[in-house]
Request: fold
Amino acid sequence: MTHLAQAATQQNPLLPTWPEFIVGTICFVIVFGVLGKMLLPRIQQTLTERTDQIEGGLARAEEAQQEAQRLLDQYREQLQGARHEAARLREEAREQGAQIIAEMREQAQAEARRITEAAEAQLQAERQQALASLRAEVGSLATELAGRIVGESLADTARQGRMVDRFLDEIEQRSADVRAGAGQ
Amino acid sequence: MTGDVHAVAAPAGGCHILHGCGFPAPGLENFEFKPLFTIGSFNFTKPMLLAVICTVFIIAFFWAAFAKPKIVPRGVQNLGEMGILAVRDQILRPSLGKKGDTYMPFLVSLFFFIFLMNLMELIPVFQFPVPSRIGFVWPLVAMVYLLYLYLGFRAQGFPGYFRNMIPSGVPSFVLIILIPVELARYLIIQPFTLGIRLFANMFAGHLLLTIFALASWYMLVLSYPLIFAVGSFAMTLFVFVLELLVDLLQAFIFTTLTATYIADSLEPAH
Reply:
């Protein structure tokens, strides 16, 4: 009996009672209102900011890395340039050195040639001089000898021989005297 | 069933557990509550109280988490972020994509409101899933229904919305069947199943928990072999854990379907 009475008051469980419907609506609207209008926008903004900051940080890191890479490339380039320069300078120096050596050698050869030529010329001159003086002396000697020969009687060859020997001795003597005089 | 039995009437069918009138199987009457207080003709009942508690708790939690959000999250904010990001990444994004973030507040509110109302089933003292009173389910369904109809009309136009329900290139004799079916699907079946699924799961869950809890008690008191009471209690624990899963799952399904319906309205699948 009580069961029946209860069953009569019991609603179809699929049909809402209006008070519950209203309370349910109000509760959800409050939750949605506070969350949707106040709290979630705040956190979404924070999340966006966080993403921005992280992405900004990554971008900055990327930028710094690019900058570092650029500098590194630049330094490498400079180093390469310096190496080239050094190599060039070395090459140049070597060329210059070789050139200087060649020039010096040429100069030295020229000098040597010049000295040799001068010496030869002097020799020639002295020889000419010697020849000239010798010719004059030999002439006078010959004349002197001839005069003596003519002055003496040109009887025999023995006398002639003696006279020539004596003449030569005289010359020898003379030259020895000259040498001795020079020696003193 | 005698008068004096009814005098000590308990929630379980009017027959007290100790009066030997058989196992008081729980039924619909377990879902009826006497008003806690009455204002005029308005009866304030336990499920309403629980709904209010859920509302207060959700707002308090998210207030603590997001009132002053930090770029580097601390404490409750971490937990709150995990919650809303789970809803965003597991429910919203798969159906609506990134442009659906506009609907995030609605879906987050739906998910946590339903989840917490479901959880009330398992929390001692409260021990009642609010959505097993369908009065708390239909308002949510009504809002989802109106939202997806509105979005459908706005995105596709009033005639376009109905035209897009029907796939093109279908032979005309099929249309005779297809048009009523598709109309019924969008206008009746979708909202109805959305509500009933949640309600029935919570209703059945509460019934199961009640049955096994009552049975443990019943068999312990009436000196059946102890093993029955222990077995029944083990089942209570098992169902408890199961219900924990169901509570989460139903909130998830309700919200996911909402997201799907919204996506369907914004971009017709056909």
Residues 1-8 of chain A have pLDDT under 50 and may be disordered. The interface with chain B takes residues 2-3, 6, 9-10, 13-21, 23-25, 27-28, 30-32, 34-37, 39-47, 49-50, 53 of chain A (CB under 8 Å). Helices of chain A lie at 2-9, 18-151, 157-183. Chain A has one domain: 16-177.
